[in-house]
Amino acid sequence: MLSGDKGFTCRLLIFREHPSKKFVISILTALAHGNPSTLPSIRILTDRPEDYLGWPVETLALSPQLLSEWQGNNGYIHRRKACAIASGLKLAEKTLFVDTDTLFFADPDLLFKQIEPGQYLMDRLEYKWDYVCKRESYQTLGTHLRAHGITPSSSFNLYNSGLCGVTDNDAALLAQAIGLIDEWTEDGFDIHTIEQIAISFALHTKTVKESKKFVYHYFGEKRFFHTMHAHFFAQHGEAFSAQLVERSHDVPRTRPSPSTWRRLKIKWQLRGQRGALNKIGRDLLYGSAAPENPYFDLSRHHWWDSASREILRLNPELRQQLFGQLEHWPQHLPEPSKAQDKTLIMAHLRKRIMASG
């Protein structure tokens, strides 16, 4: 969480209930891109403050009792995030909640300049309500929202709350969001993003800016980044130092994806395939066409894992027909750009599919 103490420079707080050292790369990227003269200090709301000994951070310990209180009575664990944001309002004039699966590629001070009274900062726009409300899992929530004047035709933006910038005058706004979470989860819930929908609703008449120009929130790609970050700390250790901050520049800020030209070529190669087969082919070829990089070399296999999951979702008869023989490259798919990857990919698929039983 980024925040600014009253009368002082802005500060960074990162909240996570069960932190792991491989996630502190987010702290390193904030430090690496920050200007020393305006760099926020770092506060972490955590139930394991011992994980941050020696790091240039302040920790605010969360007791099991407080975490239970923050979760509320309806079993919705993400209520804790809204409560964490609310608690940060007491510490600073400006507060920026940042999920730990967030990488900075710009000075954090630029984010604080986007936050003003009545002007808010969120990670990114994910959906428009008039689009997502048609999904079956959103029907119950839609009933609740109609009571608040939101209809299927309403212009209501749903933001990802992996990053949320507010000021110390916004206690009522967070209280409203927490109240909505309790209302919408009282009889159970069909979607896990109720917390960010509640915050989005509390902000829906406000000015909201997106932060995606300054950070990358890799929430849907954790398997790639966790592998790369684990490699970084295995190489350089977990003890904080100025050298560790500098070395963090070497860690990619993107997953191992082919260049634009190669992506277009792969799309052309797969032009005759549709649906699951197109996705399987794309994932197999993306893993092979990733740029040369030690971090990418270690994480590109996650593309092939994704392909194996798609293969396992196929109808058994179709799966046997298309992928029953994994000794050789499937004839119906274009071959990878690296010839040596054919054997490697087939061995990987055999291992994953056999492990599934």
UniProtKB/TrEMBL annotation:
InterPro entries: Nucleotide-diphossugar_trans. It comes from the Bacteria. This is Nucleotide-diphospho-sugar transferase domain-containing protein. The lineage of its organism: Bacteria, Pseudomonadati, Pseudomonadota, Gammaproteobacteria, Pseudomonadales.
